[in-house]
Design brief:
binds nicotinamide-adenine-dinucleotide, 20 strands, Aldehyde Dehydrogenase, Chain A, domain 2, six-stranded mixed β-sheet, alpha/beta, 42% helix
């Protein structure tokens, strides 16, 4: 018999137990295996978006903390990159085991810290463990390159971990994203300095503790908390940090590119999106409806791959939108630890204000608010799921990343028009296509400006596949071997196989 699903009260009780120690000690940095306050003594407070209560005080790292962490990562690099892949695999699997052991704590803390519904955070915690397992198993072969023989030479390529790397993560699904970035770095022999988002620092601390407990040598994984403009900046400018893997807003990606220029930093940027879900009239409409709703209203719509623009063919638009509306009105907004909740509060007042500002913008630009558009309650940053209709492609609600539970519906007549609207934004992260016509699916996907396209499906990631965007959605790919390509240098060695003719100059 299955155990009953824990109630909001059960979840809250367990959460309080987990938070107790953070209240007592605050959230500290972890540098070279040591738990440390910020060296300058500075700290900041982190609050829950549910009720704005204080969760804990967080050490605020400064330039000297980043310097200390980068030096520790540099010091540890030689040994870690020379550690046999099989040993790295073993340690990474141990990290995954410990994540599974602490999955309840991770999910509850993440939910409380970010406002994301527990039902999704429980899965995200386990997904974090899978990320470690996947890259653990690739570790022994990470250095493999290719053999590219010619008549005179045997070319052997090999890959070598690039050095200490910086990982900078955002506040949306921070645990999952951190594992996704850090696991391949460690698997191929890099050492890491992680700067998590200031708005959601809890799970990064738990993860760093787990890594330490799993037996990672000191200095291999360092955690420095702080704000982007100083702590993050110092990390991107540090000469010992050879590459920075960044997930966040497009504008921040641009700043980081400038900041990293003097030290010629290798950068991987995973940025914003305004992803279209395109529904043609021959699609399986019930499935398309399920997927469109799931991809914008799960994870509070605070998701880079959310389907925030619905492009629907005119012949079915009225019917499809009506069904959408009925469903949107039934989506449950509430306490993220309530097992029935789908949408929790948005991360922070500033972000809430930004999302709410689009309600006015939509009206002024001539769109209609068919559902939502309002705050729920007076405490916490809850927004009712929102549906904009009568939208045109050039309106701000069709162009800008709102990053909340807000869907913009745009109608189209023909395939050409749909493609032109789909590509008419600065972004190009993901696209979703619904049609039973496979020639059209191929044609359309091939022409769509997006790094990832799902046909007749919601976003389901297969870990070995490439993840990333085009245009303002990013530079580079990760996933599978693409992650290793980023974190490693490729070297070619050409061996002469005989005594080929060498030009004799001056003879
Ligand atoms: P953000 O860009 O504001 O912050 C992300 C991280 O960068 C934080 O840790 C922040 O402290 C740090 N940062 C800020 N300024 C910095 C600077 N000058 N130098 C170094 N670090 C700096 O993003 P956010 O608001 O935390 O996250 C939401 C954004 O992330 C959305 O745009 C979303 O689409 C994007 N995102 C993209 C993906 C993807 O895979 N493409 C995944 C998740 C989120």
């Amino acid at each position: 018999m299955n155990a009953p699903t824990p109630t909001l009260e059960d979840n809250t009780k367990r959460l309080q137990g987990y938070l107790e120690r953070f209240r007592k000690t605050g959230i500290q940095n972890l540098i070279n295996g040591e738990t440390l306050a910020g060296s300058g003594g500075a700290s900041f407070d982190t609050h829950s978006p549910v009720d704005e209560s204080l969760i804990a005080t967080v050490a605020r790292g400064d330039t000297s903390d980043i310097d200390q962490a980068a030096k520790a990562a540099k010091q540890a690099f030689q040994e870690w990159s020379n550690t046999p892949g099989a040993k790295r695999r073993e340690i990474l699997h141990r990290i995954a085991d410990l994540i599974v052991e602490r999955a309840d704590e991770i999910a509850l803390c993440e939910s409380w810290d970010t406002g994301q519904a527990l039902r999704f955070m429980s899965k995200a915690a386990l997904r974090g463990a899978e990320n470690f397992r996947y890259f653990a198993d690739q570790a022994p072969n990470a250095r493999n390159g290719q053999s590219l023989p010619t008549a005179d030479h045997l070319n052997v390529t090999s890959r070598h971990a690039i050095g200490p790397v910086g990982v900078i993560t955002p506040w949306n699904t921070p645990f999952m994203l951190s594992t996704w970035k850090i696991a391949p770095a460690l698997a191929c022999g890099c050492t890491v300095v992680h700067k998590p988002a200031e708005l959601s620092p809890l799970s990064a601390r738990i993860l760093a503790e787990i890594a330490h407990e799993a037996g990672l040598p000191n200095g291999v994984w360092n955690l420095v908390n702080g704000f982007g403009e100083d702590t993050g900046r110092a990390l991107t400018e540090h000469p010992d940090i050879k590459a920075v893997s960044f997930v966040g807003e497009s504008e921040t990606g641009s700043m980081i590119t400038k900041q990293g220029a003097d030290t010629l930093k290798r950068l991987h940027l995973e940025l914003g999106g305004k992803n279209p879900v395109v529904v043609f009239d021959d699609a399986k409409l019930e499935r398309a409806l399920d997927a469109a709703i799931f991809m914008i209203y799960s994870l509070n719509g605070e998701r880079c791959t959310s389907s925030s623009r619905l492009l629907v063919q005119k012949s079915i638009a009225a019917d499809f939108t009506e069904k959408l509306l009925e469903r949107v009105k039934n989506i449950r907004v509430g306490h993220p630890l309530d097992p029935n909740t789908v949408i929790g509060p948005l991360i922070h007042k500033t972000h809430f204000d930004k999302v709410m500002s689009y309600m006015d913008i939509a009206g002024k630009d001539g769109a209609s608010i068919a559902a939502g558009g309002t705050r729920l309650g007076e405490t916490g940053w809850f927004i009712n799921p929102t549906l904009f209709t009568d939208a045109k492609r050039n309106m701000r609600i069709s162009q800008e990343e709102i990053f909340g539970p807000v869907l913009t519906v745009i109608e189209f007549d023909t395939e050409e028009e749909a493609l032109s609207i789909a590509n008419d934004t600065r972004y190009g992260l993901a696209g979703y296509l619904w049609t039973e016509d496979m020639s059209r699916a191929l044609r359309f996907s091939d022409a769509m400006d997006a790094g990832m396209i799902w046909v007749n499906s919601e976003n389901i990631r297969h870990l070995p596949t490439p993840f990333g965007g085009v245009k303002a959605s990013g530079i580079g790919r990760d996933g599978g071997d693409w992650s290793f390509d980023f974190y490693m240098e490729t070297k070619n060695i050409a061996f002469a196989t005989g005594e080929h003719r060498i030009p004799k100059l001056g003879a």
